[in-house]
Specification:
The chain is mainly α. 86% of the residues lie in helices and 0% in strands. It has 2 domains: 15-444, no CATH class; 447-525, no CATH class. The protein contains 17 helices and no strands. The radius of gyration is 23 Å and the shape is globular.
Length: 525
């Protein structure tokens, strides 16, 4: 490994560390938010309605903000910065921001019109509530989609902090409402959920303005400008359409899961929501962090046509992903129940809610490593300005997910819906890897497979240690609050210690890379 490659890899890993650390803060606040919401609403019909309504703006956020538009925008913006002037790059950015804002306003107005018609129709009570909450939440998509674009701009300049800090703002806003206002007011459950929905929109606005301020310091001077005939804009549009279709498939999967959960029975949609929130912790802290920070680097290597370094980067990121996600999967398979019980079980969130949520989490955790790897491989395709391959893979995974949903939802209930997601994700990963190999050649080598074997071996040994310690503590300790903490915490600490010790003695390069960054170990490369 030459010095330039080593510095790039270290910078990416260091940025991922910063991103992951701030994301951890966000996820912890998110868990606190979920603990409060679980206590206030449990897995009731009201919370089911909020979760379902919130899916709509989140769907557009993934399609138009953080996903498709950012994926199409960043490689082209990077090329402008490297091959043209910075002034041309900012002019291009202004045109995209202007066009996106107009499109989002149009979507919101049309959405309000459709929802207004539905609001006056004779609908079941829970559907009527979903419509009403959707009307309140719809403006959130204007702010959060623009946040996704601004985040892409800042990532190009290797500024990742505010993007990682962004969810902290939303979580802090909602926590403020739930702690300082909602519990101390004589409000009905419906009034509380309305206030929480308004808080989401307020949090989105705060996220938008915080990104705008930082982007202005980087050089953004916004002037409204729409030019659909601009070559850069046209290219973003061409790249974005397939990416929107690919991400639409992902979001359709999510919507299908949420809708089918409503047919399973009360609490199923909420159980899926809370279990998905837990699985998003390692995905956000490690998966999204590594995918986000590696994206500008892959876009740069693609822009200068350095495919050997591109392949080494994507291989290295996947190894880091698996180094973290495989042991996390093994830990969650054993500790799903005590984890959910300790975090959520209080007030309206009872033992039945814990059982439902933990059951879904077990099946979600099976696909954790594929969820993480998908994020970096898809960004690899975006870096190569190929947004069509993820569409084809997405359509296949949608079909697989729907088929397995229908087959598994009745025998396994919400667990079947979660398992379907995991199965579809694994198939998607295999197809994406196959497509990437066809496009750039095989990007993994013998060292890659040696590393995977080490990770698998250490993960299974760790899993056995966690299981034995958990079962012993579960049998000898009564179910008090402090004992629940011990039942979860001791096996978790044992598992981490066993895994890290094994990987150290097996000379894991991924572990040494991380230790080198924090000054504990000096890399041999």
């Amino acid at each position: 490994m030459n010095s330039t490659e080593k510095k790039s890899r270290q910078a990416m890993t260091r940025s991922a560390g910063v991103f992951g650390s701030v994301t951890m803060l966000s996820r912890v606040l998110g868990l606190l938010r979920d603990v409060l919401s679980a206590g206030l609403f449990g897995t009731t019909q009201v919370w089911d309605a909020f979760v379902t309504a919130f899916t709509i703006p989140n769907m557009f956020r993934m399609m138009l903000g953080e996903g498709a538009l950012s994926g199409a925008f960043v490689p082209i913006f990077t090329r402008y910065l490297h091959s043209s002037s910075e002034q041309q790059a900012w002019s291009f950015a202004n045109k995209i921001i202007s066009l996106l804002s107009v499109v989002l306003i149009g979507i919101i107005v049309i959405g309000w019109g459709i929802l207004a018609v539905m609001y006056h129709m004779a609908l079941p009570e829970r559907i009527h509530l979903i419509v009403l909450l959707s009307i309140i939440l719809l403006p959130y998509l204007f702010f959060i989609c623009n946040v996704g674009l601004l985040m892409g701009i800042l990532n190009t300049f290797h500024h990742f902090f505010i993007g990682a800090f962004c969810p902290v703002i939303l979580n802090a806003t909602l926590i403020f409402l739930m702690i300082l206002y909602i519990p101390f007011s004589h409000l009905t459950e419906l009034q509380k959920i309305y206030i929480l929905s308004v808080g989401v929109v307020l949090g989105g606005a705060l996220q938008f303005f915080s990104h705008w301020i930082v982007a202005s310091k980087k050089g953004l001077r916004f002037t409204f400008s729409i030019d659909i005939h601009d070559k850069g804009v046209a290219k973003v549009w061409r790249l974005m359409l397939p990416a929107v279709m690919a991400l639409s498939v992902t979001q359709i999967n999510l919507v299908v899961d949420r809708v089918l959960a409503l047919f399973i029975g009360e609490g199923a949609a909420s159980a899926l929501y809370y279990s998905n929130r837990i699985i998003q912790l390692p995905i956000g802290v490690f998966g999204v962090a590594l995918a986000t920070t590696s994206f500008p680097l892959m876009a740069h290597y693609s822009a200068v046509n350095d495919m050997p370094l591109f392949k080494k980067t994507i291989s290295h990121v996947i190894q880091l992903m698996l180094f973290i996600s495989l042991p996390a999967t093994c830990g969650l398979l054993v500790l799903s129940y005590p984890l959910i019980r300790m975090i959520f079980e209080h007030s309206q969130f009872d033992a039945d809610s814990t059982s439902k949520t933990a059951f879904a989490l077990i099946f979600y955790s099976i696909g954790l490593c594929s969820y993480c790897c998908n994020k970096v491989i898809i960004r690899g395709f975006y870096s190569l300005q190929d947004t069509r391959t993820p569409v084809r893979v997405g359509v296949i995974t949608l079909i697989i997910n729907v088929v397995f949903n229908v087959v598994l939802m009745y025998p396994l209930k919400q667990g079947g819906l979660a398992l379907s997601t995991s199965i579809a994700s694994f198939v998607g990963t295999a197809l994406l890897v196959f497509g990437m190999n066809k496009k750039i050649g095989v990007f993994y080598n013998t060292d890659f497979w040696i590393s995977i074997r080490r990770i698998l071996f250490a993960s299974f040994i760790m899993m056995a240690a966690v299981y034995v310690s958990y079962r012993y503590l579960y049998l000898v300790l009564s179910a008090t609050l402090w004992n629940n903490i011990l039942i979860l915490g001791i096996p978790l600490c044992i598992g981490i210690t066993v895994y890290m010790a094994l990987m150290y003695f097996l000379k894991s390069q991924e572990l040494f890379d991380i230790l080198e960054l924090i000054g504990i170990h000096r890399s041999v490369n």
